[in-house]
Every structure is written in structure tokens, then in C-alpha cells.
């Protein structure tokens, strides 16, 4: 992608030289090791677009690595022709060009790729791609072995900073799940107070390890409109299933009072630990999801209540851009994070970057987060697209004399590096 403004090339070169903070990734280790050229093509989020443009049966067929690529190619070709212009496809296109020297996806290209498949299980090679992308640090949501976090033996992937994953701690539905959550402490709990104390100890242990934020992606399974139930309402649910290990609370009616109460309590712990809270909003991975429940506007009451908690709202709330801008403009404790969104919908982000510059203090924007699990090759491609989007947006704003080129460079640096470095206190 290219901008049409006269200053685009200079601004894009500036963005390329600026290191970036990857505000959100899932790399639990180094990788991947590709074993199949079609795997290279449909890995990551492009898998969802191919699925959307084909069928369940086609996806199962394409992912059968035991079948020759020549047999699978007609199915992939049909799907590629229907989806080759999406943002996800742009990632695949850049990976094919940069790492395999292929300008277009053809059967011949797949055949030539067979002897060049990347093996990024070597952490030195993995880190080299992060360096190529100038990714200075990465906030990792990896659902780790908590015992290793608490005893300090967890090994993070290169340039990683740990996020504390919250959902499993507040969506408990049975005594067994409660005991599983606190097992790393080597104890059992028998009451809601004991469970809260154990969670606080676990979260404090994460911070002592070096965790820089909480992260919650409960929008996949529930509405973001968290209620504020009483302790008695939550405790009734907790005590009901704790009294009998064979019981499991029914979702959602029975679990929601406890889920909401625990989430509110965890926000108070975030305040006390002085850690921000990243929250998934907007679009979800995969297909056949309910987007209504994920609109960040549902968080308004939570944000209002917890004014001393710093919230980092994810994925540009795609497709709810207006609500996203409003929350960033209206609440001092909200920052706007474009992680993943740069490839969900590049044009949406280009337009929203322009709007956010004119509507929201530019110091409240985080411009890049790869949101891949491993896949350093795709993190590189995603960073390239994010730089394009920011350079296109800001150069357009320079062209209309909204700000000058030097000011645009300052904003780009803040969005790619400075704001996140400060917000997460990375010290890079």
C-alpha cells in the first residue's frame, strides 16, 4: 500500500526507522516450523478469510498435509481468487514476497516453496525476524504455567513482557475449577474470601515476575456489559458449587453474578498493583461470532466506576469506530489500541487514525500489536502494514495542512513506540 500525499515516502521511511512496541501477541515460544507450503499461505488469520470464502469441508481438505499440494491447489486457488484482497491476505502476500521471493500465489510458487520453508523454532532465527521488523518489545498473553511464573523459571519468547490473563479466574463455574486456579499456590480454598486472597497473591506473583498488564478476552464468551452485583449475590453462587464437587453453575444466568463480581474485584486489584488492563473489544478470531456483545461501549459503566484503573481497549473496536473514539476522548483512563485491527481492515484503520488525530489526544494511541501466536514472519508483515497505515493517514493530514511533516513524525513515533513504552513502563 502507498499513500498519495507528497510527503508519504519521507514519512513512511521515518516509520520504518522507528522501533515499535508490539502491544499484544501470543508467542508462548519460538516458531513456527512450517511443514507444508499451503500451511504458509493459510496460517494466521487468513485462515478465517479462506474459511469464509469456502466451506468447512474445504478447510479440512486444505489442512490435510498428507495430500500432495497439487491435489489441494484447485481448492486453494478458488478460495484465493475470492479473498486475495483482504487485509489478512496482504499479510500472506508480504510473507510470500519477502521470505519466498514469490510475487503471486500459483501452483508453481507453492512447488518452489517446498525447499524454503521457514523453521523459526530456532529462537535466534525468531529473534532475527523481530529485529528485522524493529520490534523492540512484545506484550505476551500466553496463558503460562503459573507455577513457573511464581517460582521465576518461566522462559518468555524473545523481547517478551508477560500479561496476566484474567478470564479463567473470573469465569469459574465449579469447585474443581476453583481449586485448579489456586493449585500453583499448593493450597485449597473453601470460601470466596479465600479465593480472592489467592487470586491477589497469584497476580502479585506475576507482577514480581515482571508482568506489565492484565489482559481479558471474555468478549468471546460473554457481553462486555459487566454488572456490579453484591457480594451476597456472588457468594450464593460460589457457595452453591463449593458445597458439592459434582455441581457446575449454569451459564449465563447462574454464573453472571459471580463472574461480574470477581471481575469488579480484579479491577480493584489492578488498581492496587498499579497495572493497566487490556480488554478485547470488537472483532473476534474465527468465523460465526456474535459481534454485538463485544462493542467497547458496553464497558462504559466499568470505566466510569474504576477511574484509577488504566484501560487499554483493543482491536480499534472494529467495526465500532465511533464508540472507540468516544471512549478515548471522554475518559482519562482509556487508551486506544490498534493491535490486530491494522490487518482486520487496513482502510478502516487509515481512516480511524486520521479521525483519532483530530478527536483524541494523540498520546492515548497505541498503533501496533501483532496478535499472532508465534509466527514471527507474520509479525514482520503486520508491522509493515501498520507502518503503511500510519504513514498514509498522517501524510494525508499533512497534505491538508492539519499538521506539518515534523509534527507528523512525532505522532508516528508516539503511536509506534513512545506511547506504549510509557504506558506499560517497559523502559525501552
Explained architecture:
With 428 residues, the chain is of the alpha/beta class. It is built from 20 helices and eight strands. The chain has helices at residues 8-17, 37-42, 46-52, 56-62, 69-83, 87-100, 107-113, 123-132, 146-151, 167-170, 175-182, 192-209, 231-242, 256-273, 300-305, 321-330, 341-344, 346-359, 376-399, 405-423, and strands at 20-25, 135-140, 160-165, 213-216, 277-279, 311-313, 334-337, 365-366. It has an eight-stranded parallel β-sheet with strand order 1-2-3-4-5-6-7-8. The two termini are 29 Å apart. The model has no long low-confidence stretch (mean pLDDT 97).
Highlighted features:
428 residues; 8-stranded parallel β-sheet
Fold topology:
Elements: H1 8-17, E1 20-25, H2 37-42, H3 46-52, H4 56-62, H5 69-83, H6 87-100, H7 107-113, H8 123-132, E2 135-140, H9 146-151, E3 160-165, H10 167-170, H11 175-182, H12 192-209, E4 213-216, H13 231-242, H14 256-273, E5 277-279, H15 300-305, E6 311-313, H16 321-330, E7 334-337, H17 341-344, H18 346-359, E8 365-366, H19 376-399, H20 405-423
Parallel strand pairs: 1-2, 2-3, 3-4, 4-5, 5-6, 6-7, 7-8
Helix pairs in contact: 1-19, 6-19, 8-19, 12-14, 13-14, 16-18, 18-19, 19-20
